[in-house]
Amino acid sequence: MSTDTPFDRATPPLPDPSAAYWQAAAATYDDEPDHGLGDPAVRAAWAARLRAWLPAAPGDVLDLGCGTGSLALLATEQGHRVTGVDRSPAMLARARTKLAGRPATFVVGDAAQPPVGERRFDAVLVRHVLWALPDPSAALHHWAALLAPGGRLVLVEGRWGESAPMGLTAAELTALTAPLASRTELIPLSGDPTLWGREVSDERYAVVAHVAARRGA
Ligand SMILES: C[S@@+](CC[C@H](N)C(=O)[O-])C[C@H]1O[C@@H](n2cnc3c(N)ncnc32)[C@H](O)[C@@H]1O
């Protein structure tokens, strides 16, 4: 059985969610198929998923814990403008290089309280970050308040590993988004090996939560 996690397998097996961990991981982060999207088939698979999850019309996307910007790049290729937030300057340096010349800006900050002022977004995109935040429920409430009317949360998460599983189950995450959403889509992703560059046996999924009205943080 696979015990792979969304983390770089060349780094220590028990990820430390500290900023220092991600600073050190930035140099090799894109080596994983689903991180760097270097394999055209993996890249195409994520592009197709993102196109289905993000708004059809070009809009403003806030990518929180954006890492090296692989999903941000796909979003700009689909016509969106991206603001990426990450607390790792090393990750952001790679994102800025990857998206040079594209409609994207990157700022250092906390994903739970992104430094975006009064700006509002058509989608908040978060892959493999929410589970590690100290208070996922509070973060989700804050993110919902950052959405423009009709906006959506696009959350890609999972529960990885078997002996010491980490992450959020789909049931746990949909329970957290239920009070915020007028409509929620749960998309299982474990059965699509192209997304991961290999077969996986743990729970991987996306949740698209459509938030009807702006809510207080
Ligand atoms: C598993 S990586 C995911 C990167 C990217 N979302 C992706 O899917 O490729 C986790 C990222 O979240 C960032 N991160 C973790 N906790 C954070 C926080 N509290 N605020 C901002 N960024 C955070 C890390 O620096 C790292 O770049």
UniProtKB/TrEMBL annotation:
Against Gene3D superfamilies, the record matches this protein to: Vaccinia Virus protein VP39
Signal sequence annotation: none
* Superkingdom in the source lineage: Bacteria
Give an example GO biological process.
methylation
Q: What UniProt keywords apply to this chain's record, in alphabetical order? A: Methyltransferase, Transferase
Stored InterPro entries: Methyltransf_11 (IPR013216), SAM-dependent_MTases_sf (IPR029063)
**SUPFAM superfamilies to which the protein is assigned, alphabetical:** S-adenosyl-L-methionine-dependent methyltransferases
GO MF terms listed in the record are:
methyltransferase activity
Identify the residues that the record assigns to the Methyltransferase type domain, covering every copy. 62-155
- Protein name, as recorded: Methyltransferase domain-containing protein
Natural source organism? Streptomyces yunnanensis
